[in-house]
């Protein structure tokens, strides 16, 4: 730390020039990053559903299995001649849109049928390519739909591609709006905290620099792997949250060092005093920032463990945010402090009523927080019991947590793809987005023939008879159904199309599509799939099962199955880090347990509100989500566990400092806890208020996953900065006594030394 501290305080203009150049270089790629992000999780190439996609493409020649659903609403019934003519012209124009390979009004058996007599709703299916060609094709469809809107004739677009596009669009918009909403409020709180305009601006500078540089890194990442649109939200949350925490600690320590008589007497000039104060700040508070950054990085790295590039991009975004935030806090911030000196307190603003909270530049010990600490340490058993009870009660709903892909229901009402899907559901066609693709292989390497035809027909009929199956798209369609499907004509063409889609080019693979009665939520997929696999397992074919529901379930299980390993790795890394830093076995164990309780409480609240729908409407959340996004538990754990370490390290480093100073005195343990609370509570409380504002801003977005993250983080930071850090942790430290700092002698000799503020 010494070479770094000397360089940034002796060459501040060089440091600022380097950062200014870096910010200019990163500005353009940072602005381009959001457009390259995606909400499409992709497929697991080695999974069963991924293999089915490959087979459909390579063996069946399937190139346009991406379905866009268009729901047309009319003022008059579709059966009226004028409206029917208008709808026919709309369909004809849709067929000419580049990228659209096929257009069909809806019927389960590949039919040409609009909704019933007297209906004012029509459902149209447009087939577009998969992968890279899908996005431009969807955009052209939406442009065409907009051009066809007239009075009494309105069309909305939905489908898997449209839902993913809306996720990307609104997640980006939510992030920008959250930033714009939170920043003025953050600035106002910082003014109260520091009582000076210049000091209040410094945390925002650190946050802005870290966001810009991290987004530029994310832009480069998009060329390597599919990058989640939620990575932008993670970067904003972590950069603002951690950046403001670190800046609060650093600026507060710098002001203390400036006021120190020792620094003042040692300095030959105000400039030298500023440089020395900044140097001392890096060497003391800077160490806390470095350790905290290491802890947060460990936690965010947990997202790198699931074998899914989409999820790993979230982890990389979080790690980038932490690294650039720590770097900015340890370089550009002390460089600015060196140049500012006493001007950091300009202009001094006085706010009545805040002196009691000790937010400003008053005494280092706050009477309010010191009094609270004495009450807690006087009754540690009661404090620990009550605070633990509160956290456990809040965590109880997490036992019913169900995860999966929410699809369009992961968007709020008012978003086109969600509202259109609700209309599709009302038409009885919601199962179109939950189709299962079945591929059968004729055993013995034989080609399809009369014997396998009978077995194929029996298998299809058995699947059709399963509960909640609306229909099966197969070559076994009755003449009456085919005639109805074709509107009384064209049955031979339809039969030929069904035959082409049902047999591989070498006729060794067979295919049919199962359409459920309705859209299957994540918590409904397993039961339906189990019934379907029961029939297929008894059939005289080898089979593979794919489709959107199977892919969603595999994707979710790939994430959830990696959670134990991710959590274990974070626990292990954190334990080692804190053991080295605090020379203790109890401190890291206690920190892991306390942070885990906070995470579990946040899980419980999110489950109770988002999944179960309690008070959901008050937060603008839909009440029919039913599941939490599969990445949410791991994502919340990584962010919460990491950011909670900020408070933990701020407090414990001061407790250790005071304990070492008071070593040998009868009440050293008790007094060190009380003094540490008195001297750090204002920093913890100030940081918590600011982070709470950042997280709450995300609750008012239109993407449920973002709202869930914001809710979970807001609840956690509120609990962590109050019940956990100011009641539960002091109570446990008081009960542990001398065991707080116990370390076996043989281990003490082998651990590297870490020096804290003094």
TrEMBL record:
Entries under InterPro entries matching the protein: MMPL_dom, Mycobact_MmpL, SSD
Keyword Transmembrane helix: yes
Record has Ribonucleoprotein as a keyword: no
GO cellular component: plasma membrane
Topology in the lipid bilayer: Multi-pass membrane protein
Origin superkingdom: Bacteria
Subcellular location(s) per record: Cell membrane
Name by which UniProt lists this protein: MMPL family transporter
Organism: Deinococcus detaillensis
Origin organism lineage: Bacteria, Thermotogati, Deinococcota, Deinococci, Deinococcales
């Amino acid at each position: 730390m010494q070479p770094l501290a000397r360089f940034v305080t002796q060459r501040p203009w060089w440091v600022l020039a380097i950062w200014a150049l870096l910010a200019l270089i990163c500005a353009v790629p940072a602005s381009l990053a959001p457009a390259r992000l995606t909400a499409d999780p992709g497929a697991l190439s080695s999974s069963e559903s991924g293999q089915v996609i490959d087979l459909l493409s390579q063996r069946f020649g399937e190139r346009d299995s991406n379905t866009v659903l268009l729901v047309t609403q009319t003022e008059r019934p579709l059966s009226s001649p004028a409206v029917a003519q208008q709808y026919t012209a709309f369909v004809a124009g849709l067929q000419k849109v580049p990228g659209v390979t096929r257009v069909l009004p809806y019927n389960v058996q590949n039919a040409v049928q609009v909704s019933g007599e007297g209906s004012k709703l029509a459902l149209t299916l447009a087939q577009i390519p998969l992968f890279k060609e899908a996005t431009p094709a969807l955009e052209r469809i939406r442009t065409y739909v907009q051009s066809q809107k007239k009075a009494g004739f309105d069309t909305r677009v939905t489908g898997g591609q449209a839902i993913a596009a809306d996720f990307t669009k609104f997640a980006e918009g939510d992030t920008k709006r959250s930033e714009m909403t939170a920043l003025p409020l953050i600035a106002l709180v910082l003014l109260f905290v520091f009582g000076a305009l210049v000091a209040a601006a410094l945390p925002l500078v650190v946050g802005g620099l870290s966001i810009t540089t991290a987004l530029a890194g994310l832009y480069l990442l998009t060329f390597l792997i599919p990058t989640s649109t939620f990575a932008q939200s993670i970067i904003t949350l972590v950069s603002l949250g951690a950046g403001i925490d670190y800046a609060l600690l650093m600026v507060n320590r710098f002001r203390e060092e400036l006021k120190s008589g020792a620094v003042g007497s040692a300095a030959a000039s105000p400039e030298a005093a500023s440089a020395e104060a900044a140097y001392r700040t890096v060497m003391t508070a800077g160490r806390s920032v470095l350790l905290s950054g290491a802890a947060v990085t460990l936690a965010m790295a947990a997202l790198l463990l699931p074998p899914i590039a989409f999820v790993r991009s979230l982890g990389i975004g979080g790690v980038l945010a932490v690294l650039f935030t720590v770097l900015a806090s340890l370089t550009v911030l002390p460089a600015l402090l060196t140049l500012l000196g006493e001007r950091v307190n300009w202009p001094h603003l006085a706010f009545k009523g805040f002196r009691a909270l000790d937010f400003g530049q008053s005494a280092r010990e706050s009477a309010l927080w010191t009094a609270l600490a004495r009450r807690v340490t006087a009754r540690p058993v009661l404090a620990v019991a009550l605070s633990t009870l509160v956290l456990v009660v809040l965590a109880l709903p997490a036992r019913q947590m169900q995860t999966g892909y929410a699809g369009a229901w992961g968007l709020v009402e008012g978003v086109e793809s969600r509202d259109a899907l609700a209309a599709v559901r009302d038409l009885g066609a919601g199962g179109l987005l939950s189709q299962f693709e079945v591929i059968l292989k004729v055993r013995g390497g034989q080609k399809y023939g009369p014997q396998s035809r009978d077995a194929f027909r029996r298998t299809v009929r058995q699947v059709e008879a399963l509960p909640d199956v609306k229909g099966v798209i197969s070559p076994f369609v009755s003449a009456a159904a085919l005639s109805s499907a074709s509107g009384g004509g064209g049955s031979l063409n339809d039969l030929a199309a069904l035959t082409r889609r049902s047999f591989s080019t070498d006729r060794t693979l067979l295919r049919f599509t199962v359409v459920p009665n309705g859209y299957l939520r994540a918590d409904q997929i397993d039961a339906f799939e189990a019934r379907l696999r029961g029939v297929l397992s008894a059939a005289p074919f080898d089979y593979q099962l794919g489709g959107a529901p199977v892919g969603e379930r595999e994707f979710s299980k790939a994430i959830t199955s990696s959670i134990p390993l991710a959590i274990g790795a974070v626990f292990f890394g954190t334990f080692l880090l804190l053991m080295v830093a605090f020379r203790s076995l109890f401190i890291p164990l206690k920190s892991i347990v306390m942070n885990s309780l906070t995470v579990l409480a946040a899980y419980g609240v999110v489950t109770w509100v988002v999944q179960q729908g309690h008070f959901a409407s008050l937060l603008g959340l839909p009440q029919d989500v039913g599941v939490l996004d599969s990445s949410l538990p791991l994502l919340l754990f990584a962010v919460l566990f990491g950011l909670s370490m900020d408070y933990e390290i701020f407090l414990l480093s001061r407790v250790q400092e005071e304990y070492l100073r008071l070593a040998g005195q009868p009440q050293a343990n008790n007094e060190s806890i009380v003094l540490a609370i008195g001297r750090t509570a204002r920093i913890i409380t100030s940081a918590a208020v600011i982070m709470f504002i950042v997280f709450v801003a995300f609750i008012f977005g239109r993407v449920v996953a973002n709202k869930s993250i914001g809710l979970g983080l807001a609840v956690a930071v509120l609990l962590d900065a109050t019940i956990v850090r100011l009641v539960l942790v002091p109570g446990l430290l008081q009960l542990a006594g001398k065991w707080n700092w116990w370390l076996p002698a043989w281990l003490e000799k082998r651990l590297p030394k870490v020096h804290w503020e003094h």
